Amino acid sequence: MRSALRSSLLTAGVAAAALASLAAAPGTASAGPGPGPGPRPRVEVEIPGPEDGTTAGSGRASVPSAGRTAPAGRRLSGQELAADGGVAKMIDNGPSADRLDVVVIGDGYTAGELERFHSDARAKWAELAAVAPYTTYQGLFNVWTVDAVSRESGVSGDPGREVVRDTALGSYFWCGDIERLLCIDQEKVDGYAARVPDPDLVLVLANSSKYGGAGYNEPSAKLGYDGIATASAGHAKSGQVAVHETGHSLGWLADEYFYPGVPDYERYTGPEPAEPNVSGLDAAAMAAGGAKWYRWLGEPSPDGGTVGAYEGGGYYVKGLYRPTDGSLMRVLDRPFNLPGVEAMIAGFYRHARPVTALTPTGRTLRGHESAQISVPRLTGAAPGRLSVRWSLDGRELPFLAGRKRVWVAELGLPLLDFRTHRLSVRVEDRTASVRDPRIARTLGATVEWKVRL
């Protein structure tokens, strides 16, 4: 997931100095009011942009993987322990094997505040689902809540950096000496996320109205999910921060903003980045070489203007280009641009499939039985957007196109044919939002049964 671009970037101490928000030694952001003494593992996190929304991020910081610890106090009561770790499927669109499973965990909610956590989780998911392409593809997602009971309400660093609260996940503002950077204890988050069968993406909601968030965008080595986004539940803009961070973790998108006036970010001279939305090529070179987002050049984009090659991106002022002037990967409260939408759809389908077998595939179906499937609902999509094609022994049966249930008896098998045959159905998403054939090939799935009279 990490390209040469990211590995070549200066650490967040320099980047944030451009924003006058860090006072760290070169190469590392200060740990701030993090965990207690002793060496702790460190991780890189994405820093959200200022509350005024002028940028959608502020580079990266190296921070402890542990959260902020409160002084030792009482343990959870028996009643609190009984509520801790409760799991609910807030949105159920099918089996985890065929869906992208989002896990929402709250921090700073006491046992008496869990109902409010569930309400906050529904509200924050609604914010994400209102942003395209999430809006169309809501049917590909399951959303789970996991109850993490905290001894105290609220999180550390709110309202001031001196405040320390005893919470389940150790969430704290002022991480890396940056007030809006909201960090967590990754090991504790993993402990709660593991209660869900197959987590793909984790969202931690802090019980706070203070602006902030963070993006832990490296895949989990332990559980396999794509990343963690943190957000304060009570702030109107923190949901946009969470969407931006999923652009990194699900879409593998780079940041499209840059730092004028910072010498180390004046010009990028490294190799071509792996991320699909930044490039060292201008529009003419892309078109000539069939590279990056050349298929979208000249098209009107949802975030305004047309797709081209706008210099400045990936933190650098010169040497890198972005597809549009101001997408969500640069400015809050804006849509993804067209290449960004395509990348997000590709990310969705890395975890989800457009077909689920309702009839078990592990046994041979006989003449009086049927094969049945379900397909997800694509909100606002035209009828037939999901192509459903049936085949028998590799030969397509056009008269069954679009069907969700097929009887073995209608396959036309000869009466005295006692051989076992192969019935399959292929479902593909024929969205116009994907133009790269390599991605288009990933937007489908096949289910197969053995059948005989």
Explain what this protein looks like in three dimensions.
The protein is α+β, with helices and mostly antiparallel strands. It has three domains: 4-249, 3-Layer(aba) Sandwich (Collagenase (Catalytic Domain)), CATH 3.40.390.10; 263-350, no CATH class; 355-451. Helices cover 17% and strands 21% of the residues. It has a six-stranded mixed sheet, sandwiched between helices. Helix 4 links the parallel strand 4 (100-107) and strand 5 (141-146). Helix 4 (114-129) crosses helix 6 (238-249). The chain is flat.
The structural domain count equals 3
Stretches with pLDDT under 50, minimum 5 residues: 1-37
Number of distinct beta strands: 18
Give the CATH topology of the largest domain: Collagenase (Catalytic Domain)
Based on CA atoms alone, the radius of gyration comes out at 24 Å
Strand order of the largest sheet: 3-5-4-6-8-7
Topology:
Layout (H helix, E strand, L loop, with lengths): L3 H5 L3 H6 L24 E5 L13 E5 L13 H6 L3 E5 L8 E8 L6 H16 L11 E6 L39 H8 L7 E6 L6 E4 L11 E5 L5 H12 L33 H7 L20 E4 L2 E7 L15 H14 L4 E2 L6 E2 L4 E5 L11 E7 L2 E2 L8 E3 L13 E9 L7 H4 L3 E8 L2
Parallel strand pairs: 4-5, 4-6, 6-8, 12-18
Antiparallel strand pairs: 1-2, 3-5, 7-8, 9-10, 11-13, 13-16, 14-15, 14-17, 17-18
Helix pairs in contact: 4-6
